[in-house]
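Z., the sequence and structure:
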Amino acid sequence: MPTTTDNQTQIVIDDRTLEDYKKTAIKWQPVLQALPIAQAEDVLKYMHGIKGLRGVMRFGEISAKSQFGPYNPDRVVKSDVNIKHRDLETFMGSVIEKFHPNDYAFWTMGYNSATRGDAQKKATTALIVLKEICKARGEALAYAIFNGVRKEDGDKTVDLFDGFHTIADKEIEAGNLSAAKGNLYTLTEDVTNLNAVDIAKDIIFGLDPYLRRTPSLLFCSQDFADKYNEAYLETHTGLVYNTKYNQPVIEGSNGNVTLCPLAELDGTTKFYLTPKENMLWGTDNESDKTQIVVDRFESFRLTLSSTMFFGVQFHSLDKRRMKVINIVPPAPSNPTDQNSGAQ
């Protein structure tokens, strides 16, 4: 039973407390398993998700060159079909966390306030605690989507799978993303409130015509979006259609490229201009291979154990489907040699 000491509620972790948490984890497992994905929805909603993926799914990209010519029954040519594959792999991640229900008891006393919805007001302390723990994992997941680097011996979400930055770096090194292939744009100047619109238009004007006519997103930092809006305000004050501050659609894109600023790209080294369907993420958080289990291995703490699969990949690197903007900081200017010419 709870006891009161120094005006704080103390929870004794007896069999009833343990049983309450265990039953809650079983009853609400689908909801709890879905919470990290739901919490990362601010990023994932701009991409294409594959549910129930455990392991590798191969995505094929096929293209062919074939054409009619003037009628000639004797003309025979060899077919030209090119098939490329890219693999979306999800990796199994796990987490085992110890927690003491007493750490949350005082906080949850004010949780069932009149400002809460009916469902939340009826929620048990166990459900409230487990939901908060599971939701917290979504923030780390959202960050890893771009910044993850797979490390077999890692212990954080950012170590679970290669994020888009890591994948892009490997493809640049392999020569699969390059200016020559038309799918890489290198930005070597600082973005300012004066040049952001010109930089964005330069990117747009250099797109493959097929990509340029495809509704796409420019995944960028909030800083770039802010500077684009400031630069747009300065350079388009005389235009009648400039009726609002925020300009979500990039000038010169025929209405097809929308700015998509994400907090996870703050301070980034790369932007991505591509349709939503080209940014793939996969997960398995509903099968018998994933779980949420509460148990007790110590007298005063409970243990929450969870598993889940996750991974990301580009569907295609073709210039007709994407362009990566690689941000290379400008080289610092050499300081003036004060002793130049001195004898």
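The radius of gyration is 27 Å. The chain is about 30% helix and 25% strand.

Let me know what you think.
H.
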